[in-house]
Amino acid sequence: MSIAAAELGYTVGAISQQMQALQHEAGAALFIKDGRKLLLSDAGHLLLKHAFGILEAEERTDQALGDLSDGISSTVRVGVFGSSALMCVSPAITELAREDPYIRVVLQEIDPEAAVEAVASGLVDLALCLEYSGLPVSGGPSLTQQSLVTEPLLVVAPVGFPQQGVVHTESGFRLGELGEEREWLLPPERSLFGRAARRVVADTTSGFVKIHVVTDTALALGLSSAGHGLTIATQSMLDFNRSPIQTLFASSLERTMVLLAKSASLQRPSASRVHQALVSAGRNFSEGARNLGAL
């Protein structure tokens, strides 16, 4: 013990107290007296075998906690869906990789209508979802909601649809007799998009219309492009679609992309920074869309 005390700069008594405390914590005898020397017991040898790993783990933990205070190696999970990934998430990740490379963003594809539950349950830290005119998102008091991009719902048709099939009235555009002869390709009525789309149809037609239920937006646009009916979309949907399609008119209803987060989660600097990048990306997208519309 005297050699250990000299190397560590402690008194022999302090070393003895530390050894006794270590044995008490271990709940087993760690040392065997051999005259004036001490030998390791079986328990002592076992502890020694794992001691270096314990010390290294403690050092790594201290380093990680220190790094975290500096914003290093933080992971933020983001729930995304189709067009949101291209509109906001991709530019946000590009910005973060350039300006805050210590933040690791992990994407989880989720149904927009499951976003509230995904954030509330902790499956993701942030999530993008959708709301429509008259059909708002309700996240509850523990969640924050930030509107990112708002777009009108468009009535679209195959290229070559006769313009005389559209009638301009004081309250907006409607489909004339030629338009009302066409069938519709709409999402399921149980979904928010499906309910909003049917409101557009009700506002722009009169009487009975035949509806084909199509869940996938790309499929609905493809079928419409092939001449199998009219459908509802937004400009961002059309921008990410390769099918040739014709926009007839914009309805009075709108779709808004909303960013959800737990208020408590935003106390993490990393989550707050990702939130900021997504808001910035949404603002840039909206400004770009307005500029294109003004040309």
From TrEMBL:
Keywords: DNA-binding, Transcription, Transcription regulation. Residues 1-41 form the HTH lysR-type domain. GO terms for molecular function: DNA binding; DNA-binding transcription factor activity. It holds the Pfam family LysR_substrate. One of its GO terms (cellular component) is protein-DNA complex. Belongs to the LysR transcriptional regulatory family. This is LysR family transcriptional regulator. It comes from Paeniglutamicibacter gangotriensis.
